[in-house]
Amino acid sequence: MQSKQIKTHFDKSIILFFIGFFLLSCILLAFQINNKKDCNIEGFTIQNTDIKAKDLVTFIDTTANASKWEWTFGDGTNVSYLSKATHTYEKEGTYLVTLKVDNECVVEKEIKVAPYEEKMDNSLMPVIDYPKTATVGVPVSFSDKSPHAKSWQWMFGEKNGDTSFDSTEKNPTYTFKTPGVKKVTLAVNGNYKYVKKVEIFVKEPEKKKEEKLVLPEVKLKKKRGPEIKDVTEEDIEAMMRGIAKDELSYKNFAKHFCKDAMPKVHLRDGRIVSLKEMDEDIRNNSIKIKSIAITKDEDGCVTRLDANYKK
């Protein structure tokens, strides 16, 4: 009888334990449900527009009522735990940035990082005072106006591959040996990142005028004659064919005759015309020449031209 009562008491304790555990679990579950964060966040913002390697990039989370943040930047570097995080990417590429808010809400964004562009400081660029032109063999002066310069490395563009300096003075003088466009370069303080390049045109030296020996004027009898001498019937026939094809100008044709006595042209039909009129008659026409005969005077001038031709 005693054994039976002990067993009944043990069963009730087990039942009460499970009931209590169930109630406690329900309370904890309800507490978690009431305190669960809303993870419907759109994402974080990036202040930079065009991101390049070595730029300082700023990431900002605007989640309301957030208290904890965990940033990873996709390049294996340290995690940041601030709502507004800054980061620098050392290399170009595409990176996945991840933000965890309050240990529950996670948002990701892919960003592209462009190659690094080294920014130039124009205040470090040399300032050259130089002439735009020079003359071979005549010394020309150059000057550096850079306020920060303490040493100078000049090259005047005539070394043909030799990289040694032409001068290390602040205000050098140089004599060009050859004509043409020369590229003058200057670096200061040994900083070859900032090299100033200018062009100067080097002219040939002017030739000295030769003194002419003035002789007493001796009047000689000028012999008459054409500009182009020793013209023959065959020459005139060939030239007439060139005129007919419009390949020879009248001006060049007339050089074979004396200007002060141009010959008269006797045609086969008995007409006598000028040399110019014959030129106009046969130019741009198909002609057939049967014979050509010329008469010259003692100076070689053609005084008569007999032309037998048909158009």
Low-pLDDT segments, ≥5 res: 1-10, 30-36
* Count of helix runs: 4
Strand order of the largest sheet: 8-14-13-11
Main beta sheet: strand number and arrangement?
4 strands, mixed
According to DSSP, the number of beta strands is 18
- Terminal Cα span: 162 Å
Taken from the alpha-carbon principal axes, the silhouette is elongated
Radius of gyration: 52 Å
Percent of residues in β-strands: 25-35%
Question: Which structural category do the helix and sheet elements fall into?
Answer: alpha+beta
Describe the structure.
- With 311 residues, this protein is an alpha+beta fold.
- The chain is built from 4 helices and 18 strands.
- It has helices at 2-35, 233-244, 250-254, 275-282; strands at residues 45-46, 56-60, 69-72, 84-88, 93-101, 105-113, 128-129, 133-135, 140-141, 143-144, 152-155, 173-174, 180-188, 195-203, 264-267, 272-274, 288-296, 302-310.
- The strands form 6 sheets. It has a 4-stranded mixed beta sheet with strand order 8-14-13-11, with no helix packed on it. A 4-stranded mixed beta sheet has the order 16-15-18-17.
- A hairpin with a 5-residue loop joins strand 17 and strand 18 (302-310).
- The longest helix is centred in the N-terminal third of the chain and has 34 residues, at 2-35.
- It is elongated.
- The chain starts with a helix and ends with a strand.
- The relative contact order is 0.08.
- The model is unreliable at 1-10 and 30-36 (pLDDT under 50).
